[in-house]
Write a structure and sequence with these properties.
The structure holds 2 protein chains of 2 kinds. By secondary structure, chain A is mainly beta. Chain A has strands spanning 4-6, 10-13, 19-25, 31-38, 42-49, 56-57, 65-70, 73-78, 87-94, 105-106, 110-114. In chain A, the strands form 2 sheets. In chain A, strands 2, 4, 5, 6, 9, 10 and 11 form a 7-stranded mixed sheet that branches. In chain A, strands 1-3-8-7 form a 4-stranded antiparallel sheet, with no helix packed on it. In chain A, β5 and β6 form a beta hairpin. Chain B contains no helices and 10 strands. The chains are: A mainly beta, B mainly beta. Chain A binds chain B through residues 4, 33, 35, 38-45, 48, 58, 90, 92, 97, 99-109, and chain B through 4-8, 32, 34, 36, 41-46, 49, 89, 93, 96-97, 99-105.
């Protein structure tokens, strides 16, 4: 079974702190994604990556950055956390072109609270 | 600033009844659509998909209907069970080469 693992299920941070959310997948997928999930807004794409060291902005990249130094790992970074970044963060991965067959595999999410 | 919607549409159905969850998609060029199910505390999981050259596709207890004229997608669940309680998302993409765009989600609550 494909496994997408997000390192932290729950985090509480203070405004201005730097936050790292880590995601690891074990199926050698080329594509990895970070989504943010808020009630009534659905899943919104923050950043995605087609390959190692490659990144593309999604719909809401402001306030975030990412790092993909290894194929299996995709990190989301909040340089200076703000309260409006309190949310559920979902990592996902798929083979190249995998969304043509719906094979987007998600982690269980990281719920971040910024105080 | 950005407006924030806090309300997640909810559909409540009696166990054993059929459920219909609707989705209006945004891009008339979208040619591939997927329904995902998200149970509490878990990430979304693939349920069923449909391509734009079809208007109906059936799976086990689920059927997806596509109306391209009005850009509408629906998910029908037959004989709804308590295990179907979850949030359901539709997603769309076009040309098979762009990330999925997700809808806002609908919460299905099954009453035993």
């Amino acid at each position: 079974d494909v496994k997408v693992t997000q390192s932290s299920r729950y985090l509480v941070k203070r405004t201005g702190e730097k936050v790292f959310l880590e995601c690891v997948q074990d199926m050698d997928h080329e594509n990895m994604f970070w989504y943010r999930q808020d009630p009534g807004l659905g899943l919104r794409l923050i950043y995605f990556s087609y390959d190692v060291k490659m990144k593309e902005k999604g719909d809401i990249p402001e306030g975030y950055s990412v790092s993909r130094e290894k194929k299996e790992r995709f990190s989301l970074i909040l340089e200076s956390a703000s309260t409006n970044q309190t949310s559920m963060y979902l990592c996902a991965s798929t083979i190249r072109g995998g969304w043509r067959t719906g094979e987007l595999f998600f982690g269980e999410g990281s719920r971040l609270t910024v105080l | 600033g950005e407006s924030v919607g806090l309300h997640l549409p909810t559909l409540s159905v009696q166990e054993g009844d059929n459920s219909i969850i609707n989705c209006a998609y945004s891009n008339s060029a979208s040619d591939y659509f997927i329904w995902y199910k998200q149970e509490s505390g878990k990430g979304p999981q693939f349920i069923i998909d449909i391509r734009s050259n079809m208007d109906k596709r059936q799976g086990q207890r689920v059927t997806v209907l596509l109306n391209k004229t009005v850009k509408h997608l629906s998910l029908q669940i037959a004989a709804t069970q308590p295990g179907d309680s979850a949030v359901y998302f539709c997603a769309e993409t076009y040309s098979g080469n762009t990330p999925l765009v997700f809808g806002k989600g609908t919460r299905l609550s099954v009453i035993a």
